[in-house]
Design a protein that fits this description.
five-stranded mixed β-sheet; two-stranded antiparallel ribbon; 303 residues
């Protein structure tokens, strides 16, 4: 998540007016400053920047919290804690938004924290924004420069397939009037965010076709794809090796304590278990149970 936090924070700093206007759905918003904060949330991590704005004749704060997955602890608790701290620190009204980047995230987020106990009622509300439910074409048409890198994650127009939509987003980013170095970084941000739902090779191909920034964008994704392949291979090797060792350790205990033969159906059954944590749990049980029948019963009840 840190990679996406960094991108979101950079885009907010660069295009605060776009994010404030998008959140409040008002054009008449004046950005005063972007406030960096070290304030911890319940999870004790850096929060995103606050945008201090002038709206409806007064000052207020606009806050965006970006999430790739569902939150632990639950988002309502985190947001209640954060909003309370921000109000206490800055003494301004706050408009808080949680933006879920992945299509499957945030489905159960109610958009509020509610406590009703013994006559005490606490209600803290915030806006839940799931990018996959937003009209991406509208964001492109309204020229939200700061939000364009997020558009590939939004709902595409009817009849447009995923690759065509990503290509359209890249082409629009390419048209943005900005310094070439800035544009290269801008495309990197779009590409990294697109990686949440698109295949890495597809992203690299589309961007290399539409841009001249192979060195900064395509190279990044080529290296990332290679790195991911290596990491997955190592991870699978560790997982498979760990499982084999766990099975061997478990069978050794049963053989030593209860003379379980390798050909016994129970041994074959244990050898088919893929879950390393379950094998470790059974290993501890094998050390403690009084007899093989007790172990069989435990195994049956565990399934």
């Amino acid at each position: 998540m840190a990679e996406f936090d960094t991108i979101a924070k950079h885009l907010i700093h660069t295009y605060p007016h776009d994010f404030a206007r998008f959140a409040l759905q008002q054009d008449d918003v004046e950005v005063i400053e972007v406030i960096d904060t070290e304030q911890p949330t319940v999870e004790a991590h850096r929060t995103d920047s606050l945008i201090r704005v002038q709206i409806d004749g007064g000052e207020a704060l606009v806050h965006h919290e970006f999430q790739t997955t569902d939150s632990t602890p639950p988002m309502p608790q985190r947001m209640a804690s954060y909003i309370g701290r921000a109000i206490g620190q800055h003494r301004l009204p706050i408009y808080s938004n949680v933006i879920y980047l992945r299509p499957d995230a945030g489905r159960s987020d109610p958009g509020y924290y509610l406590q009703e106990r013994h006559g005490y009622r606490v209600l803290v509300q915030y806006q839940v924004i799931r990018l996959s439910e937003l009209d991406g074409q509208r964001i492109l048409d309204e020229r939200y420069s700061g939000l364009l890198p997020f558009v590939p994650l939004m709902q595409r127009p009817a009849g447009v397939d995923a690759e065509a939509w990503l290509r359209q987003c890249v082409n629009r980013a390419q048209e943005m009037p900005m310094d070439e170095t800035v544009k290269a970084n801008y495309l990197v941000h779009l590409a990294i965010l697109s990686g949440l739902t698109y295949n890495i090779e597809t992203i690299a191909t589309i961007i290399s076709e539409a841009t001249m920034y192979e060195s900064s964008v395509v190279q990044y994704f080529t290296e990332k794809a290679l790195k991911q392949g290596i990491e997955q291979g190592i991870e699978q090797g560790i997982e498979q090796g760990g499982r084999a060792c766990a099975v061997e350790d478990l069978l050794d205990v049963l053989a030593i304590r209860f003379e379980l033969a390798a050909s016994d159906p129970l041994a074959v059954r244990l050898g088919a278990i893929d879950d390393v944590q379950r094998l470790k749990k059974l290993h501890r049980a094998a050390i403690q149970v009084p007899n093989l029948e007790a172990f069989r019963h435990l195994l049956d009840s565990d399934e």
